[in-house]
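To whoever is on call:

I kicked off a structure prediction for a single chain this morning and the downstream step that reads the tokens threw a length-mismatch warning. I double-checked the sequence; it's 358 residues and nothing unusual in it as far as I can see. Pasting both halves so you can look.
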Amino acid sequence: MNAIENIKSLYRRNGYEFMPIEINPCPIVQKKIDDALQGKTLAEYYDYPEGFQAVSPMGIKLKNNQNIDWRSFYKEELNENTWFTPYGKAGEGGYESADHMRRAHHPMAKFETLEQIKDYPWPEWDFEDVDYIKEHIDQAHAGGKYVTAGIECTIWETAWGIRDMTVLMMDMVMDEEKAAYIFDKVTDDAVNRARVYASAGADIINFGDDIGMQDRIMMSVDMYREWLKPRLSKVISAAKAANPDVIIQYHSCGYVEPYIPDLIDAGIDILNPVQPECMSFEKLYKEYGDVLSFNGTIGTQTTMPFGSPDDVRKEVFKNLELVGEKGGLVVAPTHMLEPEVSWENIDAFIKACIDFSK
């Protein structure tokens, strides 16, 4: 199998030949990795080129992003290192490329009328001139690499990032017209982005919204079914209508077990990241392993930062042995590898994936 055949067979639970390697280091950890590799790539260092074959497509361009003064939407003064999403959510801080390590500010938090929301400078994505995305994906496929596109923060996180979570939840209960307008605008953009990536030939599309907390769900199942499930279903349906072969991964940190039947019904194929601090992978696999695949399961709150290399290796083997030869799990750290994670544990994780494959 090449990497494309391997990942599709693995996620369809039809067997696999090698375990793909997925890690997401923060800048501090990336430096530890670079120091250890001494100029080599991970594929070269481990002599495991087949395990490092995932490619991300080029992003969809914006028509109006360069002309918006996002700071004008904030009464508070934001520091010079503040970063803005295409929707204007501000991330204040200096920690490179790690949005969840920044202080968030929300441009619509003080909006009082629906007219203010409608008049907001919503991003204008260029969904017409997208040939460059297909060309990029075709090139990756020609090299035997698979393509994973990302529309993370698909609906819920983008919406509350603009409006503020508390305010948006109040809208959902007391001012439904405002909430519906925001959700629908974000959903329509996600539908069009999903359609572009799927039509261009992306093998996997990552959707996701954090809807779980450490030990409980963020909103009731009824509220989820009213506000988010129909919109997520719409986005996934658009992707699968454009390319029935596309694989859908859904990300939510935290405890999401009560939502899983609805996520499956909405059309997801893979659940990520299955934090072991929040849910039992063994329990979820026994209940849903015949209809759902998984990505993650190696704790970034526990095993990766605070376990020993042997602990890391045992956890990788335990989870891969559970799913067996048919696959259904890409074992990976459950989130970004943050500063406490040692090179020794990263090395142990990668070697365990390779050794299990062999």
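Update from on-call: the warning came from a stale cache, not from the record. Cleared it. Sanity check on the structure: The two ends are 14 Å apart (CA to CA).
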